[in-house]
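Holo model, pyridoxine-5'-phosphate. Inputs:
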Amino acid sequence: MQPLGKLRLGVNIDHVATVRNARGGAYPDPLRAARLAEQAGADGITAHLREDRRHISDADIDGLMEVLSVPLNFEMAATEEMQKIALRHKPHAICLVPEKREERTTEGGLEVAREENRLAHYIAPLREAGCRVSIFIAADRKQIEAAARIGAQVIELHTGAYCDSHAEGRMDDHDRELQALRDMSAYAHSLGLEVHAGHGLTYDTVQPIAAFPEVMELNIGHFIIGEAIFRGLVPAIEEMRRLMDEVRG
Ligand code: PXP
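Output:
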């Protein structure tokens, strides 16, 4: 199978806001990071407005909608409050993620199969408003089928377990996770879903995922923002872009 097109890079700027919020001031500014990411070749900016506002704030979303020239991928939990905010802004893309207050980051994929009816009703007005709706899910056949049935246009496969097993040297688990992601990316594509992937990706783990021909977009944040401390934000993004382009040709 030939690559289906250019692999897009969405740069997640949440952790610029995490650093800002550690002191409660105005810097570092996530909007400035977003503009630099655009310059560095990001195809989109991703930001997660969490219910507890631990990093990105409502004002950040207002600002991003105003200044961005690339699309905003707005990550949010499937709550009434977030639906209202999304419908006010009508961002290019919405990615529904599960959210637990006690978690450090988005730990698992969304449970779509058990909430099919509610989620189908939840995403309908978002789609009608012109937003591309994506669902962040595990590489699980049942969840993918449910995502297709509720009318999502996109699924984003959770690469966290694949990345964690690599970092911890559990290479059998790593190979198994990679195979599941590969199989489910092909399966989702066969159902007509656009396939994205993300969570925990680094320079060491990005290429095998970028090599899946069905994957159209990767969303990467934490590693890039960390690496920016050492190389600067633009070179950190450019290197990720280079690694992605290397495998996609
Ligand atoms: N995709 C989704 C749906 C996410 O929730 C996150 C984390 O906010 C990411 C991608 C990016 O993950 P990371 O910051 O670990 O690169």
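The chain has one domain: 8-248. The mean pLDDT is 95.
Archived with the compound record.
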